[in-house]
Structures are given as C-alpha cells and as structure tokens.
C-alpha cells in the first residue's frame, strides 16, 4: 500500500510540475531524479527506476477470443526475463545484453489480462503503470488492444513494445512515439502473398472476402483488395464484415456466389479462423474455389487441423527456419516447454530483449533516450535475418514468410505449416511517405 | 431463382441454428417455469456437454482412442459420435439431479438475486475447472465423417439451395427428433401433466398429494440433459473452448425464452426458430445489422408482449 501512495504522489507531482513548463521541470528534476544510477535526466513516466529491481508489464489476453495466443506470449516473456537475469538464449548472443539484469537491475514482471478487449487492456495497463511502476509495457494480441494501450503509453510516457498486432493502423494512422512494432502488418502480408497467389492460381480472377469487423480486419481487408487487384489483376466481388468472436459462419458462407468466386479470402484470426475455415470446407466451398487465410497462427492451424491442407497465408516467423538465432530460440523454448514455440512467443521474447538492449545502449531507462536507441536501429539475431526498426513509423522492416497448410498426414504437434517462401525485406515495405506510414504522426518524446 | 435459393438457404441455416436454441430454451424454460428458478449455470451444462462429447468422441475413435489401445479396432461403424449421443445426455441428466439437490433446492425460497448469484458462481467454477483440468486449448469440432457407413462429411446437392453440408442437415433432423420426443413427454405423459400443472400452480399440485419434489428433480435433470445435448450438437459444428458456455448457450437461451415465453415448451421451440431465422436472414442480407436487429426484436417483444409468444406470465415473474 505504501508503494501505491509513493507512486501516486510522485506522478501527481510530475503532472503538476508539467504545468510549470518542461524547461523548469528539467532543471528541478536534475536534482531529484537519483536512485537509478543515472540521474542526469528529469523524472518522466516511471523514470527514474528506484531500488534494485525494474518492472516490466506483460499485458496479454488470458481470456477471450485470443487467450491461447496470450498464454504463448507469456511463455516467451517469462523466458526473456529469465535470460535477461541469468543469461541464456539470445542474451548470450546479443552483445548489448549482459545476462545480469538490465543496467544491473534485476528484471521482475507483472502480468495482466486484457480479456482481448481494449478497455480492459487499458485498465490493466494503467494499473501496471500507476501501481506497479512498470517502466515498459508489452503485450496484446488484437490490434484493437495494441492501439488502445499504445495511446495510453504515449500519454503516460511509458514505452510500449507491441506483441501480436497486424493492423496497418498500429504503425500507421494510430502510431505513437512510445510504441515499436517488430511484427509485420497487413500491408506487408498483401505484398508478400499476392505474387505467390498470382503465380499459383493465375490472373484475372474474382475474389470474395469475409473480414473480422475491427481495426485489424478492416485494414487486412483493404490491403488484400489493394494488392490482389494491383498484383494479380483480380477483381473483388464483395467484401463482408463479420463480428469479432463469431462462432457460426454458415450464413455468411451460404452467401458466397459459388459460380462467380475463384478465391475466397477469410480475414479471420485465432478462434474466428478456427471456426470459419473448417465451416467453409464443410460447406464444400473448397470444391468450387480456392480459399486463402492471409494471416496464420498456431491456434487456428491446430483447431482447423485437416482443413488447412494446401491453404496459403503468411506468418511472422516459424520454428522450422534454419538460421542460428531461430534454432537457438527453439532449443531453449523446447527445453522449457517441451514443444516448439509459436511466433507469438518469438515476438514476445524479441520485443522484451529489444527494449532491454536499447536501455543498455542508452545507459539509462530515461524513455526519450531509449526511444532514440530503438529508432533506426539495425539488428539481426532475431530469427529473420537483417532487420531495422524504422525511425519514421517505428515499424520493423523485415522479411515476411509465406506459408502453406500441411496435409493431415504430414501434420505433427509442432509441424502444421510449411514455409513456401521467405520474402526479403527489400521486396516489401513502403517509403515513409507512402502506405500506412504516410498517415503516421509519432508525437512527442517528452523531453522537447 | 436466385431469390428462391437465398430464401431456401436462409430457412435451412435458420432451422439449424434455431433447433439448437430451442433445445437450450426448452431446458431453461421448464426449470424456470416449474420451479421459478433462474439457472445461469445453464450455459455451463452446455459446456459440459460439449467437453464430454469431445472426450467420448476422441476416446472411442477407433484410430487412436481408448478403445483402440484396448485392442478393439472395429465395431462395425465409427461409433464415437453415436456413443456421445447416448452418453452426453446421461451425464447431463446426472449432473442435473445433483445440481437440483445441492444447488437449486436450498435456494428455491430465496430471492431471485440469490439464485442468480449462486448459479452464476457455479457457471464460473465449471468454466475455470475445465480450464484447469483440460486446459484453455481450443479443440476442433467433432462431427463424424461417417455415420452407419454413410459419408456425412461431404456437402450434398439440395434443390433450390445448392450444396449444403450434409452433417448440418442431419443435425436438423436429430435435434427436431429430440425436441419432438421432449414435447410429447411433456404434453402427453403423466409426468408432463405434473410438470405443466407445476408451472401454473405448484401449491395446488402439492395439495393434490403429488410428490412434486421428485418431479422437480426430474424436470431439472431433463433440462440439464437437453442443455448438455445441445452442447454436443454445438461441438459438432464449432470449435470447443471454455468460453462457449456463455457466448453460445446462456445468452441465446435467455433470448429464446424471452421471445417464446417463460414456462412454455411450445414457446421455447417457436422462440428458438424465430431467433434462428432472424439471425440467418439478417446475416445473409445485411450482416452488419444482424446483432442490432436481433436485440431490437427481443427488446420490442419485452415492450409489447412481455409474456412472450406462448407465455402466461412475464419472464422471471
């Protein structure tokens, strides 16, 4: 309780001080900011970090449509904390990290449940920031959640490291200075997937879309329409929104015109896709047309099982990649959990380590300096070759995997998908004044 | 021709969805009508039905289940789903008896808020227990690929409709059979007469010397068996995860009896069908309005006909 009071009063003081002007605050806090070993910066957000421990907030869905994703993310996060404190995994390979905590402080974590709901996620993140003094929040699975929490983090001047969020808006129209995204987005899915589908299925086809009716589904639908039309010369017959969390898609599927449609695009994720894809196959739509699920995840592939045979989509990362970093992560994860990690676990692990490495490079937890270390940072060793965290929109520029569902006979507990191609980052992406980045205004560092 | 095929497919999808709602609604309505007991754990019984079905289906599947490990590799047909059809209602019935005796009975004379709290608490306990014992994983739906040697996994060509999943067609037949038998049991048997009389005036029935408490147990158990059976049917078309009890069962069951009328079996059947058809028609025509129109319809029912289509009193009265 004493901790609560301290945290609140300190934040209240900060907010009051804010009114007195940033320059004045900087001068004052220079004297009071100590305790974190780096007292040259003014207090900001939850900086400075007091004591020997630093708190990370893991805000994941433990209930709702994406709860299984959340469980996987948490496994990745906990592995990252263990390695940051004791060494192991990528911490041994990344030169910025020591394996003895971050800036000699032991990393501890608090967990929250977003319930796959933006309001609940904001409340949970608020508790982590105000009560637990989290210096960094990470998590999400649902772009609606990521966008809500990153907005809060910008206001509170606490860094947000995105986990699973694939909407263009996260690093597009809704982007913020205090949030970074390692995952690719719907736009990049379109760029990677459209040429493969054109080569596989041909040109001048008609496609019909169903999409989950929220931020991710809407930008996903728009990107598929743009690239299938531009790259393949395909024509969209219709695009129908479905509520997030729909379990029975039979009526939507009955409406798909079998004689006109060449390709059915199911822009669904998680549980939604685990229902819509098998139901489409049950209705025999695969006999009349090709089906595409643009964004794969393990939950969906496991639950849809035999239905994914031959179906194309994209994925953030896959345990079958043969590079050293991927295999080293698979090895440590498998030792702990007795099966291969999903890509949700890799993003969680990567984003946590990326934050810690940026803090080490900055030599301080002071958020604006950490942000500057992440912006434009070139890195490898995260399983996808050379990557960069672009400064103009905080979107990682990286390769994208195109996947195809394995046949039921071929499937094992770990192997559900086959890697079709790894599209190099040079072939996808967009300039800072194009695509989703053109709509991005990052906002302030907080030390201007 | 297009219009004909659209109407036909709306009707079939609506009937299939409506039949599951009706199963749920009948169970809830006979418990509410007879004992004036609001059972928010009705969705939990659906959840149990889905999971028991899943386990029975997996364990009796001849390629990898318990029977296979016991050396039985052929019993003439894929018995998993048939075994589940028999076992799931029995488990539901047993659970219903236990629930009536240990949860419902002590709360019959307590205010409705107490009943709501205890049954909602029970629903949460069941959901969390499932998560802890079986895990939060999502399981693939458990429709059989063949039944009595007939392939039911392929869609079949129907006049007007075109291709329609044959398993969903079978579901309509199976659920209507169960609904029909339940209807006859309540309308045409002595047990049914007692139940119906109990819904009107339980004091009078008791004064007539009928042991209505025993009937209460049976009614509760029958309602539970129907909910569990609905769970099995639901599990055969949709993925199974711990949250389906509330999302797919409890809310639709309440909407069904609001439309149909509390305490009326006929009402539950009609309510289920009306809701199924509304959802199906709206989804296929103006999908974004489906939920709005559904709840608007139920709200209008509450305003203009609070006793429901076939009810005698207001819901929860």
TrEMBL record, chain A:
<dbReference type="InterPro" id="IPR019546">
    <property type="entry name" value="TAT_signal_bac_arc"/>
</dbReference>
<dbReference type="InterPro" id="IPR028081">
    <property type="entry name" value="Leu-bd"/>
</dbReference>
<feature type="domain" description="Leucine-binding protein">
    <location>
        <begin position="54"/>
        <end position="406"/>
    </location>
</feature>
<dbReference type="InterPro" id="IPR051010">
    <property type="entry name" value="BCAA_transport"/>
</dbReference>
<dbReference type="Pfam" id="PF13458">
    <property type="entry name" value="Peripla_BP_6"/>
</dbReference>
<keyword id="KW-0732">Signal</keyword>
<dbReference type="InterPro" id="IPR028082">
    <property type="entry name" value="Peripla_BP_I"/>
</dbReference>
<dbReference type="InterPro" id="IPR006311">
    <property type="entry name" value="TAT_signal"/>
</dbReference>
<protein>
    <submittedName>
        <fullName>Substrate-binding protein</fullName>
    </submittedName>
</protein>
From TrEMBL, chain B:
<keyword id="KW-1003">Cell membrane</keyword>
<feature type="transmembrane region" description="Helical">
    <location>
        <begin position="286"/>
        <end position="304"/>
    </location>
</feature>
<dbReference type="GO" id="GO:0005886">
    <property type="term" value="C:plasma membrane"/>
</dbReference>
<dbReference type="GO" id="GO:0006865">
    <property type="term" value="P:amino acid transport"/>
</dbReference>
<dbReference type="Pfam" id="PF02653">
    <property type="entry name" value="BPD_transp_2"/>
</dbReference>
<keyword id="KW-0812">Transmembrane</keyword>
<feature type="transmembrane region" description="Helical">
    <location>
        <begin position="79"/>
        <end position="99"/>
    </location>
</feature>
<keyword id="KW-1133">Transmembrane helix</keyword>
<feature type="transmembrane region" description="Helical">
    <location>
        <begin position="216"/>
        <end position="237"/>
    </location>
</feature>
<keyword id="KW-0029">Amino-acid transport</keyword>
<dbReference type="InterPro" id="IPR052157">
    <property type="entry name" value="BCAA_transport_permease"/>
</dbReference>
<feature type="transmembrane region" description="Helical">
    <location>
        <begin position="167"/>
        <end position="186"/>
    </location>
</feature>
<keyword id="KW-0813">Transport</keyword>
<keyword id="KW-0472">Membrane</keyword>
<feature type="transmembrane region" description="Helical">
    <location>
        <begin position="20"/>
        <end position="38"/>
    </location>
</feature>
<comment type="similarity">
    <text>Belongs to the binding-protein-dependent transport system permease family. LivHM subfamily.</text>
</comment>
<feature type="transmembrane region" description="Helical">
    <location>
        <begin position="44"/>
        <end position="67"/>
    </location>
</feature>
<protein>
    <submittedName>
        <fullName>Branched-chain amino acid ABC transporter permease</fullName>
    </submittedName>
</protein>
<dbReference type="InterPro" id="IPR001851">
    <property type="entry name" value="ABC_transp_permease"/>
</dbReference>
<feature type="transmembrane region" description="Helical">
    <location>
        <begin position="249"/>
        <end position="279"/>
    </location>
</feature>
